[in-house]
Specification:
Length: about 350
């Protein structure tokens, strides 16, 4: 899929949004989730007026930042009721993202991730809102041929979750070419850390760092290490971790960079990987707790290494990750994991 600017892009809208203008209004779909809540908080801090739309099926009402307006509802039917000429942009996070569930219930993922985005694009077009930042994923690449993975790598997702995100990228590309949408898709690798009381809490939880910290808290008997015979330094999988605050900064930069008629795709990661064993050891150092672990066989579809080739985010967005120390990322996540915010019961 091409993600290069159209020939006339240089003459198009390059001014972006003015973060200093308190009248600039944006819609954040999925803004009660982990990443959406942090991005919403950073937008508010930067002077944007923020409306959060979330159905709270996986998000939490307590995660909606102070200062944001909030509407509970699905993107499918509520976005069209909200969007009008007062909005300058949409940041779209409202997607299901559990790989295993997507394999067991693919219809749920196509209906939410793809149909929901299709209806959102219709609502944006009808309201004249012509700027979009889309929350995408490295899962679109599947089993990588080269590591680090550049944006030019073949897209061959190995699960319905990745396939739905890739389908949305195709939709956005066509919308940009046909109707002048200014769009940026940000393909995340692994996200970690917390920001000012906003952190990661899923039910069920499937991500390594929060699972390791749950083990440190005694909420799990042990952390399971899947696969110890990969062609890596210690036999376990390698993953690229990016701090959620750095991720949020990239979204603000993408708002300014988006150009009419262009769909820009950028990977987001630090360009360095850590093994599963390294993550567990770092968590032991940070928490001061033993964190028991057990070993199991490989999980189907787990690549040996996923590391971002993120040079384009630097050249096109002016973005550079600032929080690249693994222990510091885990320390931030640990602070959140021990907090008393009632995410488990309050929706």
């Amino acid at each position: 899929m091409s993600d290069t600017p159209r020939p006339d892009a240089a003459a198009s809208d390059t001014a972006g949004l003015d973060a200093a203008d308190p009248g600039t209004r944006v819609l954040v779909t999925g803004g009660a989730g982990y990443i959406g809540s942090v991005v919403a908080a950073r937008l508010i801090e930067s002077g944007y007026r923020v409306m959060v739309l979330d159905d709270l099926s996986t998000g939490h009402r307590a995660a909606v930042p102070e200062g944001a307006e909030f509407v509970e509802g699905r993107v499918h039917d509520t976005a069209a009721k909200l969007l009008d000429a007062s909005y300058s942009a949409v940041l779209h996070f409202a997607a299901f993202s559990q790989v295993g569930e997507s394999v067991a219930k693919p219809e749920k993922y196509w209906a939410n991730n793809v149909v929901g985005t299709h209806l959102l694009l219709d609502a944006m077009r009808e309201a004249g809102v012509r700027r979009l930042v889309f929350s995408s994923t490295a899962a679109v690449y599947g089993e990588p041929e080269t590591v680090p993975i550049p944006e030019s790598a073949p897209t061959a997702p190995t699960n319905p979750y990745g396939a739905t995100k890739l389908a949305v990228d195709h939709m956005i590309r066509a919308e940009s070419a046909a109707h002048g949408l200014a769009a940026v898709s940000l393909r995340y690798f692994n996200v970690a850390g917390s920001y000012r009381g906003y952190g990661e809490r899923h039910d069920p939880e499937s991500h390594l760092i929060p699972l390791v910290l749950k083990t440190a808290l005694g909420e799990r008997p042990a952390i399971t290490v899947f696969g110890t015979d990969y062609p890596t330094a210690d036999g376990t999988c390698v993953r690229d971790y990016i701090h959620v605050a750095d991720l949020a900064d990239a979204h603000l930069l993408a708002l300014r960079r988006a150009r009419r008629g262009e769909h820009l795709i950028c990977n987001l990661g630090i360009g360095k990987g850590f093994t599963v064993r390294e993550v567990v050891e770092a968590a032991r150092r940070v928490t001061g707790r033993p964190i028991p672990q057990v070993e199991a066989g490989r999980r189907a579809g787990d690549p040996a290494a996923l590391v971002a080739g993120a040079r384009r985010a630097g050249t096109e967005l002016g973005w550079q990750p600032r929080h690249t120390d693994l222990d510091a990322m885990i320390a931030d996540a640990w602070t959140f994991a021990r907090s008393l915010r009632p995410y488990d019961t309050e929706h």
